[in-house]
Design a protein that fits this description.
Layout: E1 2-12, E2 15-24, E3 27-28, H1 30-42, H2 46-67, H3 79-93, H4 98-117, H5 142-151, H6 155-161, H7 171-187, H8 191-195, H9 202-208, E4 220-225, E5 231-236, H10 238-248, H11 274-290, H12 294-302, H13 305-323, H14 327-335, H15 340-353, H16 357-381
Antiparallel strand pairs: 1-2, 2-3, 4-5
Helix pairs in contact: 1-2, 2-3, 5-15, 7-10, 7-13, 11-12, 13-14, 13-15, 14-15, 15-16
């Protein structure tokens, strides 16, 4: 019988984390418990820890009843056993929603990847994770293509159209205002998150990026506080790290406390639409300067600072594929998605954009259930 026990007040690098241990007939299961502790450290949200725990408990309960699953024989899991859990238990016996099954799959993928990367198992575990029936023609998602093509633009266009039209006579404001859209494009910041007093703390950034004559910008993960009093861990690429470093040790050197996106005297910005208004001004100036066509002008009128977040999501999907990572695992975490429908949209569009035939083939199988639900949402929001 699989049970769980909550472990509270565990100390880790001056942090206090709360995790769970899975127990099989009184014997702790090392592998899932280690993963749950790792998850609690990386994503210290009580809801996240509990969600991961219940998913692994469900998996171990069902698979153990048929295979006597233990830490020592987990590498012997077969495609048939995984399919039996996803299709036989979750889909048929419990009749759970596709989104719930996808959530279980995401957690299981992350679990197996953690075990291998941590050296807890000697071989990678790969499964098809297939559970859907063959799709019909009506299940494909043309609406995504139109919406995302209007929203997305590449890095070169971003630098020419938005960064190239940030203008101020004050060096501090010029550099600060250039950093604002970069936070959207490279790190998926919402407009309100840019000035949130919990984000981009000057003292934390200076400790993380100390002044040095030999500074080399490297990608770093940082906490970003967002909607619903939640925070996520977001990768900041070297380009963004370089911009932050240059700013905090240059024109922003006088900032003493709080968010680095502030007034010249260090006092906080309070207008949550500041980033939105800045984007609109830059976009309007760009359209006017370039003499764009009416159609191009309409597309730019639809774009906003929030669309930079969509660009970040799409680019992150590409980065996941380049690094051999699973975007289904990382994109929801980096963007704070509650629904996998949102994640599906970015993975689908990126596959179309880069002509990833293998990904599109896989997504076409999933689109039977994804497509119907997303199309209803898309048509409703655009109706």
């Amino acid at each position: 019988m699989i049970e769980y026990k909550k472990v509270t007040d565990t100390k880790y690098n001056e942090k206090t984390v709360h995790s769970y241990v899975l127990v099989n007939n009184g014997v702790p299961l090392l592998l899932p418990s280690a993963f749950l502790l790792h998850t609690a450290i990386e994503y210290p949200s009580s809801n996240t820890s509990k969600t991961y725990m219940f998913a692994l408990k469900s998996f171990y309960e069902q698979v153990d009843s048929k295979t006597n699953l233990t830490d020592s024989n987990i590498e012997n899991l077969t495609e048939k056993e995984m399919s039996g859990y996803l299709v036989g238990i979750l889909k048929k016996e419990r009749n759970v929603k596709p989104s719930t099954i996808e959530h279980h799959i995401t957690i299981l993928k992350e679990f197996f990847k953690y075990l291998y990367n941590s050296g807890l198992i000697s071989k990678e575990l790969h499964f098809s994770y297939s559970y859907l029936d063959k799709p019909t023609e009506e299940d494909f998602l043309p609406g995504i293509t139109t919406e995302m093509h209007d929203a997305y633009f590449d890095e070169k266009t971003f630098k020419q159209s938005i960064l190239g039209y940030v203008e101020s006579d004050c060096p501090f404001i010029q550099e600060r205002n250039e950093l604002i859209p970069k936070l959207g494009y490279y790190a998926g910041f919402r407009a309100a998150e840019v000035i949130d007093p919990r984000n981009l703390n000057i003292n934390e950034l200076r400790e993380l990026l100390p002044e040095s004559e030999t500074f080399i910008p490297k990608s770093k993960h940082m906490n970003v506080f967002g909607k619903g009093l939640k925070y996520r861990r977001v990768p900041f690429p070297p380009e963004l790290i370089r911009s932050i470093y240059t700013y905090i040790w240059g024109n922003g050197r006088q900032i003493k406390t709080g968010n680095i996106i502030c007034r010249k005297n260090g006092s906080p910005l309070v207008d949550t639409s500041f980033a939105t208004n800045l984007f609109r001004q830059c976009a309007n100036d760009y359209c006017l300067d370039k003499g764009l066509s009416e159609l191009e002008h309409k597309i730019w009128n639809k774009r906003s600072h929030h669309k930079l977040r969509k660009c970040a999501a799409t680019n992150w999907v590409t980065t996941c594929y380049e690094n051999g990572d699973d975007p289904w695992i990382y994109i929801p975490q980096w963007l704070g998605h509650k629904s996998l429908w949102t994640t599906f949209k970015y993975i689908y569009f990126e596959a179309l954009f880069h002509k990833r035939a293998d990904v599109l083939e896989t997504l076409s199988l999933e689109s039977t259930k994804y497509g119907k639900k997303f199309k209803k949402k898309f048509e409703k929001s655009n109706g």
